[in-house]
Amino acid sequence: MGLVNLGTYVAFFGPLAVLLPQQTEAIVGDGKETALAVVTGIGAVVSMVANPLFGALSDRTRSRFGRRVPWVTAGSVVGALGLTILSGATAFWQVVVGWCLVQASVNASLAAITATLPDRVPVAQRAWAGGLVGLGQTLGILVGAGLAIAFGGTRGGYLACTVFLLLSAVPYLVRSHDEPITARPVFALGPFVRSFWISPTQSPDFAWAWLTRFVVNLGNGIATLYLLYFLTDAVEVDDPEGGVFVVIALNSVVVAISAVLAGRWSDHVQRRKVFVIWAGVIMAAAALLLAFWQTWPGVLVAAVVLGIGFGAFLAVDLAIITEVLPDEDGFAKDLGVINIANALPQVIAPVLAAPIVLWLGGYTTLYVTAGVIGLVGAVAVVRIRGVR
After folding, report:
1. What does the pLDDT look like over 231-268, one tens digit per residue?
2. How many Cβ atoms from other residues are within 10 Å of residue 360's Cβ?
3. TM spans, by residue (predicted)?
């Protein structure tokens, strides 16, 4: 499961961290900020629809290979096709089409594999398992950026991410032991569509968990969207692409350590919410460092601080979510609804970030805004009643 997560996040973050900004700048030139906001925003809309939809279909899939394996397989193969399209894209519309295909297909795989956590892991071990899932996400960012840079140019970087995506799925597909469902699910279009609405009044803990993840991810999305441009235009490092990799590598190591340790600690003391609150405080502090210490040493310190906070949040927030899922027969669908809280910030963040950078105070205002938003999101976790 961790390897599939790793591959999917390589497919996401290799392009997002390095390849899409490079490709967008090469195609559109001076309008790079707006163009990047457009392509990432459209892709996020696709992600918002694809993850819960394919998750719901995964919950209902009857095959001798199980519920999850067919979607991990199809998502990985079609995602590789989308990355291949991006590798040869020379027009902006081709970038948009390729990225949307990647978002749709890889989210199908992600929805299925994420549901394996509540499918198979006992509640008392879920923060620890969430830390391992977070480790896959974190290393995915590092490996994706590393492949993008190491293989030189957008074509080689995309193809390297393609190969990695396919290979990372193989161990799970061979050894998943995914059990098929025997009962034939009753399907009616109306109830199927209505099932995606989870009432905040009937499931308030789920609603607050969704809101917590949404707001924290919005702050994080605002802070990370323009990292390459921030290092180029504000910090003025000599090698911004290399700088991105160093920052991501440092942050990823810290996130990995923090996620595993915080997950273990949370499971041991059987408390969740206090970890999320402190994670938000730490991430806000990192954003303020970027706002007021715009030097290369400042960026490195902020990367470490952010890693501590975000790693703890990844592990413990996922454990909270698995404990408040309202439908035992629809884990992938409900987790897909949760994923909207991951994807919707990718739509909103460019809308907020682009005018802030261009007209409303630049990167200082951007990072202050990100810190405040993320802190507000973390504090919202106190409203969850069914989790300590």
Report:
1. 988 898 888 878 888 888 898 889 888 988 998 899 88
2. 12
3. 36-57, 69-86, 92-115, 127-151, 157-174, 210-231, 243-262, 274-293, 299-325, 337-360, 366-384
What does the alpha-carbon distance between residue 344 and residue 334 come to, in Å, rounded to a whole number? 16
**Cβ neighbours of residue 98 under 8 Å, at least 6 residues apart?**
82, 83, 85, 86, 89
Residue type, 214: F
Distance, CA of 329 to CA of 348 (rounded, Å): 31
Q: What is the 3-state secondary structure (H, E, C) of 199-244?
A: CCCCCHHHHHHHHHHHHHHHHHHHHHCCHHHHHHHHHCCCCHHHHH
Structure tokens at 174: 């061979």
267-289 b/e (C-beta count within 10 Å ≥ 16 → b): beeeebbebbbbbbebbbbbbbb
Phi then psi for 213, rounded to 5 degrees?
-65, -40
Give CA angle at 121 (115, 127), nearest 5°: 95
Place of tokens 């979510």: 321
Q: Where are the domains of the chain?
A: 2-174+199-383
How distant is the alpha carbon of residue 66 from its chain centre?
A: 25
156 φ, ψ (degrees, to nearest 5):
-65, -40
Q: What is the mean pLDDT of residues 26-34?
A: 84
pLDDT, tens digit, for every residue of 147-199?
887 887 788 999 999 999 999 999 999 888 777 776 666 666 666 677 677 77
In this structure, whether the domain defined by 2-174+199-383 belongs to CATH 3.40.50.970 is answered with no
Average predicted confidence (pLDDT) for the chain: 86
Own/partner long-range contacts of 190-196 (Cβ < 8 Å, ≥24 apart): 192/56, 195/56, 195/327, 195/330, 195/333, 196/52, 196/56, 196/333, 196/337
Integer angstrom CA distances of residue 196 from 190, 337, 384 = 11, 7, 21
Q: The whole model's pTM is what?
A: 0.74
The DSSP symbol for 271 reads -
- The residue written with tokens 């990225």 in the block is 99
13 alpha carbon, distance to own chain's centre? 8
